[in-house]
TrEMBL record:
HAMAP family: CoaBC. One of its GO terms (cellular component) is phosphopantothenoylcysteine decarboxylase complex. This is Coenzyme A biosynthesis bifunctional protein CoaBC. Residues 188-402 form the DNA/pantothenate metabolism flavoprotein C-terminal domain. It comes from Sphaerisporangium melleum. In the C-terminal section; belongs to the PPC synthetase family.
Amino acid sequence: MASQGRVRPSVVLGVGAGIAAYKACELLRLFTESGHDVRVVPTRDALRFVGEPTWAALSGNPVTSEVWESVHEVPHVRIGQGADLVVVAPATADILARAAHGLAGDLLTNTLLTARCPVVFAPAMHTEMWEHPATRANVATLRERGSLVIDPAVGRLTGADTGPGRLPDPAEIFEVCRRVLSGRGRDLTGRRVVVSAGGTREAVDPVRFIGNRSSGLQGYALARTAVARGAEVTLVAANVALPDPAGATVVRVASALELREAVFAAAESADAVVMAAAVADFRPAAPSDIKIKKSADDPEPIHLTKNPDVLAELCERRGDGTGPAPAVIAGFAAETHDVLANGRAKLARKGCDLLVVNQVGEGLAFGTPDNAAVVLVAGGDQVEVPRGPKEALADTVWDLIAPRLA
């Protein structure tokens, strides 16, 4: 078993024989530069894409794909036994199949069988291979056994093909692995969750819009931590310029009406919805089809109309049975003053199960890597979250949601 007193967490990086193997070099760099001791275990064919000297130089450790080298050290057993985390990237269809069926034909599959630590697979393959019933069954089997299989990204594949099957961004795979190593557990395994993030923009004309300062960082932290805890995540992202969190399905929207439609569609099959997006309260009643030109006269006033209150409507329709019925609905409230009083009034008005209330303003919350908040719970309880990384607040939110799903 992995040593409890080890200063440097021990990570095994398994590398499959796919063109995306070169991206694993960046993942390896992120692990080593953050203080992890990494042992790279490629398959024999993976070395056709990236050679042994590269992995050895980047990791600082010996590299082999064979069980017959350094036999006196029993590497086919010891590597897995001593790991704090095993991550396979790229995980090809072949690796997923062999892992699901417990085969042990090389050093990597032996390592997977002997590991008693968390195991993360980051698949990469062509769309047809990812969607094949055999692959889907293998993924389901691995997930049932406790492995975290990250859904691949959607994008350009080998050649001119495009679709689901692309290896997620290495930095995002690293973030998922970092969260797994934090030991929060897999209490959202099998759950489907929806997270909204960012800020909506309401068109004034084809050039201008009414918007807000939300960066989407908190919503993305919620999505990333939910993936690491085993959830199937749909992220509705409004005007966010951030890399897609590894393993999340991202639906991009612009306006409040688009966000409403996307959230309600995703919520149909969701166990929990967390509305972290900053949704505009108003929109221009009659946006111009052409750019409004400057003139010597005073500009015409822009008449506003109310946007739908997506959070309140979601709660109301759950209550009367006319809409999606997720077990837990959580919202966010950004306030500049009387934070708790305004938050409690909003919790009662919206009808949600949890409301995360935080103070916003210059240098607070919007666009910053940290956040502080109070989570108000329907029924009167509250949980204070001191200023810290937005992932810490995200984990607190899921800590409160997970028992309610059980």
